[in-house]
Amino acid sequence: MELNEPTRRRALEWIAAALAAAGAPQAAAADAAPAAFPTRPIKLWIPWAPGGATDLTLRMLAEGAGQRLGQRIVVDNRAGAGGTLVMPILAKSAPDGYTIGQMPQTVFRAPWTQDVGWDPIRDTTPIIQISGVTFGILVPAGSAIRSVEELFDWARRHPGELTLATNGVGTTPHVVMERLFRERGIGWIHVPFKGTAEQMVAVTTGLVMAGVNASGFAPFVDSGQLRLLATLGAERPRRWPQVPTLRELGFGVVATSAYGIAGPAGMPDAAVRALHDAFKAAMHEPAYVAELAKHDQVLDYLGPEDYARAMRAAYAAEREAVERQGLNRRE
Asked: Which of 73, 192, 289, 311 could form a disulfide with 62 if both were Cys (CB 3.0 to 4.6 A apart)?
């Protein structure tokens, strides 16, 4: 049967509409397909002042990772509160992979000592663990104090007069020294600083009598401006093999504060994997390993799953340590 022209036209229109409807899901799916990550610059938050060892090494690492991702990783600093100011940023940011931050040890400790409104496990997506730091106890080069025992002896003879600087309230140096002084029943004055550089200048010039910080102190020690009494790691650093560790001296303390990078909770697996792969490749570059060595740090790599386990373990361990020292917050 031959169709007349109006009927034939309507039939063709009906077939075209049916074909368009059949193809709509595929077209919609194509339109909804996520773009390759990343398509714009990424913000890396460092919760310390510029110029310290962690800041310098992470900036170098971010540059290398950004080259591999094909997008810049822009570093921003948010110093203060003992390195915990990264957490409010991550907790409130979109989990799209474009906001990430360094996770210092203090973020696992602070929720047990104060009300913070965030949780380092619940509110983050682990990406990669990078390294740890070398802490040291320092005095001015001209100080009469030449050992850790002499530091405690002076404080014992002058109750409440010893001024000692750290990189912030609740940081590992602060907690370690609080424990050591408390165990000996000795009073002291804690002087917190936001950045390594200003803290070391305060110790060098005698504004404070002693200081404890990560190995951003190295130039001051090597130039003869500061005397390194002891380090807090498990082994003596290669750079100063003559300097004992607190553990060697019988103080029963080992502290290295492993750190890594995380993003907001709920990040897509593809973004996590892309960031992880870029940072992992960059951190194993010989130039970056050499840069870490300048600050007496070594690689301590963990991937997302292992880093997640390490973060949970650190959170639990900090709770035990805080409760043991009587520093837990009062409900």
From this structure: 73
Query: 153 is in which domain, residue-wise?
Result: 135-231
The span from the CA of 260 to the CA of 258, in Å, is 7
Asked whether the beta carbons of 265 and 125 are under 8 A apart, the reply is: yes
Tokens of 179: 């424990």
Q: Which of 276, 271, 274 minimizes the C-alpha distance to 261?
A: 276
Q: What are the tens digits of pLDDT across the range 76-130?
A: 999 999 899 999 999 999 999 999 999 999 999 999 999 999 999 999 999 999 9
Both tokens of 156, joined, read: 């014992």
CATH number at residue 176: 3.40.190.10
261 shares a domain with 226: no
Number of domains within the chain = 2
**pTM listed for this prediction:** 0.75
101: left (phi over 0), alpha (psi -120 to 50) or beta: beta
Q: Return d(Cα 317, Cα 320) in angstroms, integer.
A: 5
Same-domain pairing of 158 and 102: no
Report pLDDT digits (tens) over 125-183.
999 999 988 899 999 999 999 999 999 999 999 999 999 999 888 888 998 999 899 99
